[in-house]
# Entry
Amino acid sequence: MNNKRMTKKGVTVALALALTIPALTPAAAAEKGQAKINSVKFNGMQAPSTIEQMVQTYTQASVDVKYSDGTTKKFPLSYKRLFKSEDKVATNKGEMIAAGTPIDVNGDPIMDNSVPGKPVPFVSDAPDSNSLLNPINGQQYMVTHYEYQTVDAAGQSAYGVVPASMSLTKLNQDEESGELTPEKVTKIDFSKVNGLWIPCNGSLSPWNTHLGSEEYEPDARSFENDPESSARVSVESFAQLYFGDKTKANPYFYGFIPEIQVNKNGKTKVEKHYSTGRFSHELMKVMPDQRTAFFGDDGSYTTMFMYVADKKADLSKGTLYAAKFNQTGTENGGSGNLEWIKLGHASDKEVKKIIDSGIKFSDIFETSDTPKDGFKAVKQYSHGKTEYLKLKPGMEKAAAFLESRRYAAMLGATSEFNKMEGLTLNEKDNKVYVAIADQSSGMEKDTAGKDPADHIQLPKIKSGVTYQLNLASGQMDRDGNKINSKYAASSMEGLLVGEDMAKADAYGNTANVDKVANPDNLSYSAAMRTLFIGEDSSKHTNNFVWAYNLDTKQLSRVLSAPAGAESTGLFAADNRNGFSYIMSNFQHPGDELDTKSITAVDKEELKAAMEKEIGINKTGGIGYISGLPSFAGDADKNHNHGK
# Structure
């Protein structure tokens, strides 16, 4: 997710948040004759101005709720924390370990031996996605990602070389207030799917399972041909730490969508969906038909993908498409029509069989160092530079599902998107919102004429743009075949645009502090008609969570994360046992403050306060904001209690 993560992991802000909504249950409200909610208005907060505020995760926002009887009530919001990733709250083999501790194939904590003679368990400082599941057997659960490890115990970068993890939290929910407290935290076992690679954002499926992600898929070409490449180093380090054997390293194990089902007894089942394609999965968002899905493909020179499953609530078999962006305008960030190119159809079993055969990149493609007849020039994220490829006979399925972005570019799809992050669905308006955190690089006009294609020629906006995709039925793919979905995206246009500044202000911000900078996490509340946006920004010293009302067009800052942290895990749940929540986390607090030009406060004092109060790059937070009325019955129509 991070803007600099393509090199290591980077800058930005995170945030721990969850909006608890204490109020009367629907039955009690009816009994007392309480009026219905007509509208919700967020009253935003100022940006932090003191060291104390810059170190905190806090809100000073409030909400005005207008009722059907004409009355209005103000609800002040407040922040509460569930736990930090360093807190020893997870039960693992009868021992208590830190929530963010990764476990190996045997379920044991993975040890950090970077300081000679002082082995300690790794502990991720990067909690990311949260899914607050619909109650299962009357019990509330939360799945949380721990995306990566910023530094090891010796203070050296550990990004991308340590296996990642997820946790399941069994939550207690106060019947009167809705307040959440963790009852039990356990680590989720990924041993049957070769471990978990960089789980970034995620989503809750309409059938109440958690859909995770594996971001920044390791480049199989570099892995095979260059022993010194980051792909080889990362995957071999992963294999050594996870399996205890670096010879088990295989880049094609990673870059997919893991689905986590929580059973009625609170146990988890994990599947990786290989038929959804292999690329830099930010997250997968499933549409109301329970078959169609869109993805974020994070990185530079990436692609927009769409998946249509054969059956409802079953991601084990389906058709993968990639979009060609046909630009129509540059106003308000930009706009374009989307043309869908079919890459192929496959089942998880088919793709897994190809992987298990020991296939390598060179089995799928021929390569040339220079332009050559029969070879297609492509440029895409995992390799990072123009390459000349020719598909080997019979390798269409392998290319479509193991080298999805390369194959898509070869077929004419657009591979020029930059930092395509979170997505969320507005079912009523038939829109999907997608965050382009940094509109630059491949999304600018190629004035040098060096790229193989130049489909996107939009304004450079380093602060990013939040787009909306317009969904429609009856669409055809490029070959004239009907797409079997009522939810294919036909076009996209800018909704909210960031504003870059020529120089830093006194707090080190290089983007307008009163506009969204580098949108990343997105989550939509149907009950509040509000799009929530979490930042992953090096351009704001403190990252924020924003509330954007789709009807009034009002943008309100509703939470500030610790300086240098990234806002992650944003998740709006309009009704959980009669209460509403908006979840979010913060990761890598205090990161890269050294690079900031800060004069409004003493930067060294700020860093010292960050280290004292939280710890720089040592932990991340999971928590929530409380404050709103209940929206029970207003949303969550596709509500299933377990699968």
About this structure: The chain has nine helices and 38 strands. Residues 1-158+501-561+600-643 form one domain. The first strand starts at residue 17 and ends at 18.
